[in-house]
Every structure is written in C-alpha cells, then in structure tokens.
Amino acid sequence: MDPKAFFKLSYGVYIVSSSTDGKDGGCVINTMTQVTSSPARISIALNKNNFTLKLIETSGTFSGVVLAEAVEMDMIKRFGFQSGREASKYEDIPMGRDSLYNPYPTENVCSRFTCRVISSLDVGTHVLIIGEVVEAQVMDGTAQPLTYANYHLKKNGTTPPNAPSYQETTEKTVGYRCSVCGYILESDTLPDDFICPVCGKDASYFSKL
C-alpha cells in the first residue's frame, strides 16, 4: 500500500472548540465534513489524547470554524502545536461565543458552525463525532478557505502526530526533527541558535535523524 495516495485526498483546515466548567479549549483539525444537509450534520475526528475531545465529550457541544487562507501561522501554532491542558488557547485573541457557550476565533475565519453531539464512534486512535448543526454563519464572504494542500505548500506547515493524516516517513532523511511539531530541518548541522519555523522551539528540542 502506498501511503502517498492519501495525500491526494482534499482537506480543509479548521478549528474546533468547546467549553466545560469554565475551561475553554480548541484545536486545529483537517477532518470536519458535512455528512447530511437535512438535517444539517457535520462530522469531526479527534485523537483520543486530545484535550479538546475531553471537553466535547463532557459538554456535548462544539464549534467549528473554516480558516481563511490569510490566517497567520501563529494561529495554527497556538491551536495545533500545544495542549490545552497547559496552554490557554483563547487568551488575548479576538473571539466570540455561540448560543451554546462554545468559544470560536473571529479573525481570518470564513464561516462558523455550532453543533450538538448526537453520536460518536471509536475508530482506533481517534473518535469520530457526529454533530447536528444548530447555528451556521458566514463570517467573511470574500475570503478563500485554506486547504490542507496550501497549508503545506504556501505556509510550509507540518502535520502534528495527533492528526488523522499524520504518517511516519520511511524515507531516509539527513537532518534534525523537532520533538514538538515534527518539523524536519534537512541539514548536516544544527545551528545553536536555530528556532523552529513552525512551533518556535529552540535547538534543544531537535534530535538528529
């Protein structure tokens, strides 16, 4: 089986969020999909280790936003490469709350959705959640959605290990890998002052391949 075949599947880039007992959380995913139109239902898949999944399972609700191409990598880093167990994802950024009290970012967002969980399915490393849409709003009608392909092509984005599309590479590469986000610096040497361009960690977080 050629794992590169999966790279041809088309994805968007989204942030899903929830709130429980005064704790807000959210994460970046590429697995938000409309599954029916009447009633309107959306599916998402989250890693079992993901703190946002725990919030959704407790609250029974979640928000989902479609990120625009103009979104900064700092936003991807904030929601995609740190855990909500330690970090306050929504601190000091523009945000809103939907009718079910779920938080959601408001900048560089094409549209947003509010969902109630109606079912879930254990699919191994991840949990597939089906949500019934109770709110849907276009946030910016002129913005182009960020595709997963352009996230990699235009923003040099990497895939976190918790993502459903993450794959271990079997190819021999000379360089150093970031232990936080998986970014690979293809080089024979690692400068002492090197900073990861994706998650911002210093050289001490890199290991030789």
From TrEMBL:
InterPro entries for this protein: Flavin_Rdtase-like_dom (IPR002563), NADH-dep_flavin_reductase (IPR050268), Rubredoxin-like_dom (IPR024934), RUBY_RBDX (IPR048574), Split_barrel_FMN-bd (IPR012349)
Cofactor(s) annotated in UniProt: Fe(3+)
Keyword vocabulary terms for this entry: Oxidoreductase
Cited SUPFAM superfamilies: FMN-binding split barrel, Rubredoxin-like
Transmembrane segments: none
Origin: domain of life: Bacteria
Gene3D superfamilies: 2.20.28.10, Electron Transport, Fmn-binding Protein, Chain A
PROSITE patterns found in the cross-reference section: RUBREDOXIN_LIKE (PS50903)
Keyword Signal among UniProt keywords: no
Tagged with keyword Oxidoreductase: yes
Domain Rubredoxin-like: 173-209
GO molecular-function term, one example from the UniProt record: riboflavin reductase (NADPH) activity
Pfam families: Flavin_Reduct, RUBY_RBDX
Protein name per UniProt: Flavin reductase
